[in-house]
Amino acid sequence: MSQTSPSSTHNLRADGARLWATIHETARFGGTPKGGINRLTLSAEDGQVRDWFREACEAAGLTVGVDALGTQYALRPGQDMSLPPVAFGSHLDTQPTGGKFDGVLGVLAGLEVMRTLNDAGIGTRAPLLLVNWTNEEGSRFAPAMMASAAYAGDFTTDEILAKRDAAGTTVAEALDAIGYRGGEAVGERAIGAFVELHIEQGPILEAEGKTIGVVEGGQGIAWFDGRIEGFESHAGTTPMPRRRDALLGLSEFALAVERIALAHGPSAVATIGEATILAPSRNVVPGQVAFTLDMRDPRSATLDAMEAELREAAAEIGGRRRMTLALSRIWRKEPVPFDAGVVAAVEAAAEGLGLSRRRIVSGAGHDACNLAGRVPTAMIFVPCKDGVSHNESESATQGDCAAGADVLLQTVLRLAG
Ligand code: HGY
Ligand code: MN
Ligand code: MN
Ligand code: MN
């Protein structure tokens, strides 16, 4: 295998058609009739795509390891194995109404980078490491990005293994059910730098006609579990003024959430993504409601201010409607800046490829946002249609995916030497 040299690799390009075919080949695991993907973390479908990923990596000559939280690491040796690997990747789990590109593009473009280097017979000084992080989405087990958070030391492995989904299944049980509770200790694997390619999941690149987002960091995120205790009563005999209807309490609180986010706009966003009437019945006034709240902004102080205002609103609504609205914060991820050196490598790669680009901050959370706390990290964005994601209609173009893979390839070559 020849040594990398800028001239020998400057014109190296990924095989965009092969990447496109791979994206569509794996979309069958959890594929939905509407053309999306429903592949919740550690589901049977996730197990199938993990098996596919391991076989594809091994066919590319990579050595695949699995850690105690199921994260898959595919290693390509370098000339100097004493150097920590340059890592890249993302996640293969999806939302229930997921699309073909969220997370998947970053993992499969990473596989395409390995395949392209193999085809060209090019070696790198540092080893390369392709990573599929477990449970980036956080839909089945909270919080999101949990395996990369454990790798970064934000949670212990045991804390994560004990997390339960709505059915009461633990992460440990779910890993065992698909045979992906690996032997490696989480966080033990050295990583010298990390680069994640991802669709933007927002409208900016498409609106400005830019192909590449040079991502400078990720915004802050706060997750809450909410609980409203009103009072069940007869739907036919309880006069309206005497009701303590928990669903109406939530309805008012939801409008307060929207008002507070708008007041801190344009960057602040807040979402009640789950809501459940407990012991539901069509002829009982709802007495108990459980819900979730996701709140984000690039500024930590704004997250603090929004939380205080939300708690005030909850107390005011609860007092007036004679019910309790309890908010417990279960996760807070501070806004994170990416490494200036790796960001510059991404920018230089995009420039060298003659691709239109702009600096951007990520509205979505990513595994890179956790890695950034431990290793030099940056991200590459490509546009997605109408900025839509976490929706089965999510789509991107073959050309943009190929351009993203080329930026990833050239960035990795710059970092790995
Ligand atoms: O929630 C997020 O931002 C990520 O897509 N899981
Ligand atoms: Mn993602
Ligand atoms: Mn996502
Ligand atoms: Mn991600």
From TrEMBL:
Keywords recorded for this protein, A-Z: Hydrolase
Entry EC number(s): 3.5.1.87
Residue span(s) of domain Peptidase M20 dimerisation: 219-318
Molecular functions (GO terms): N-carbamoyl-L-amino-acid hydrolase activity
InterPro entries tied to this protein: Amidase_Cbmase, Bact_exopeptidase_dim_dom, Peptidase_M20, Peptidase_M20_dimer
SUPFAM superfamilies: Bacterial exopeptidase dimerisation domain, Zn-dependent exopeptidases
EC main group: hydrolase
Family the UniProt entry places it in: Belongs to the peptidase M20 family.
UniProt-recorded name of the protein: N-carbamoyl-L-amino-acid hydrolase
